[in-house]
Amino acid sequence: MEEIQVEPPKATEVRVKMLGSSVCHTDISSLKGFPHNQFPLALGHEGIGVIESVGDEVTNLKEGDFILPTYIGECGECENCVSEKTNLCLTHPVRLTGLMPDNTSRLSVRGQPLYHVLSCATWSEYVVVDINYLVKVDPTIDLAYASFISCGFSTGYGASWKEADIQRGSTVAVFGLGAVGLGAISGAKMMGASQIIGVDKNVMKKEKGEAFGMTHFIHSNVPDKSASDLVKEFTGRGVDYCIECTGVAPLLTESLEATKVGTGKAISVGIGVELVVPFGLLGILFGRTLKGSVLGGIKTKTDIATIVNKCQKEEFPLHELHTHEVPFVDIGKAFELLKEPDCVKVVIKM
Predict the structure, then answer these.
(1) Does this model's pTM top 0.85?
(2) Higher-confidence residue: 55 or 30?
(3) Dihedral sign of CA atoms 142, 146, 148, 154 in order
(4) What share of the chain is helix, strand, coil (3-state, %, to 5)?
(5) Does residue 333 share a domain with residue 264?
(6) Is the pLDDT at 272 greater than 80, yes or no?
């Protein structure tokens, strides 16, 4: 724990008192230099908070509003936003510098600027966020659930809903049954997939997958057999769609190989630390499609509201994600809890 300084918000920014946060594996990857290697680093990008103060030019938000920080904006006017083909806004892009849009930081420690993982640092009592990188939500939402929706669960859900655009009656494999993978299973169920296969080396994830709509489970820790081999043995010809949620480099090729020749589609949403990965050319040469995805193709202003509404109606068993909890002062324990085989999400109580 460190005592830090948090500046007032500038013109188009708000200062937020964090109410709750959670741990995402991207936070862990950031310690190893992804998405940037700027230090000292303030961690956290999932969470929910309440606006404490607003900048001079902020008109659509006020003190007391509950918000989710996001790491993609949505201007609604740029070429990408208008096209409806992608969620990657050109005006408010993913920030990989660890700084605010003006390339400065509102956080400092002992006189030195603090960087953050993406658009802010939610593992702090107070954060400053540019208004283009947050979404207002209903204050009655469960704080833990809101934190899951701000990144992990929504990424997987969107991968099935927005990126894969899964067709009713089709078959789907999901590699990795963490929060992102369970979101992908939930999205595949919503889209009407007839067979949803969860693939994980941890057999304890089988029960979690079934709670979200998984129809079959494949234990991938089998000697001399790849994940794609196991999927094809089970299905015969592979699946229509595969959502890769682990970020483990070799599984990028495996996700393609697990799909059907000629028509298969794989969506890559997992984030590891290897930015250059080995890739099997034959996997894609035989007519399959590989698509990368950030935040599962979810548009922050448009689509997160839909997911929040479904959350409020309890259409997802998000309580199944809430496996561990730590008070903010004991945040160091969160890293150890992630190693537990039954851990899905660690909630940080601010």
Answers:
(1) yes
(2) 55
(3) positive
(4) 30, 25, 50
(5) no
(6) no
Whether the per-residue pLDDT at 173 is higher than 90: the answer is yes
Whole-angstrom distance, CA of residue 242 vs CA of residue 261: 13
Confidence of residue 35 (pLDDT cuts 50, 70, 90): confident
For the residues of 7-76, what is the DSSP string, one character each?
PPP-TTEEEEEEEEEE--HHHHHHTTTSS---SSEE---EEEEEEEEE-TT--S--TT-EEEE-SS---S
**Tokens 């300084």 sit at which residue?**
5
Helices 179-190 and 205-212, interaxial angle, to 10°? Answer: 30
CA angle 208/29/333 to nearest 5° reads: 65
Structural domain including 110 reads: 5-150+317-349
Can you tell me the distance from the alpha carbon of 245 to that of 156, in angstroms, rounded to the nearest whole number?
Answer: 8
Within this chain, do residues 75 and 102 fall inside the same structural domain, yes or no?
yes
Closest to 171 measured CA to CA, from 139, 149, 147, 199? 199
Would 299 be classed as within a structural domain?
A: no
Q: What is the pLDDT of residues 285-309, one digit of tens each?
A: 999 999 999 999 999 999 999 999 9
Confidence band of 273 (pLDDT split at 50, 70, 90): low
- C-alpha pair distances (Å), 119 with each of 72, 93, 103, 122, 269: 8, 10, 11, 10, 19
Residue 343 is part of a domain; what is its CATH number? 3.90.180.10
Using DSSP bridges, classify how beta strands 345-349 and 13-22 pair: parallel, antiparallel or unpaired. Answer: antiparallel
Q: What is the pLDDT of residues 177-215, one digit of tens each?
A: 999 999 999 999 999 999 999 999 999 999 999 999 999
Per-residue confidence (pLDDT) for residue 98, from 0 to 100: 93
233: helix, strand or coil:
helix
| Residues written for the chain | 350
Q: Are residues 128 and 186 in the same domain?
A: no
Q: Domain for residue 32, yes or no?
A: yes
The total of other beta-carbon atoms located within 10 Å of residue 84's CB is 9
Q: Tell me how many domains the chain contains.
A: 2
DSSP code, position 162: I
**Residues 78 and 202 grouped into a single domain:** no
Q: Is 278 in the same domain as 325?
A: no
The verdict on 103 and 141 lying in the same domain is yes
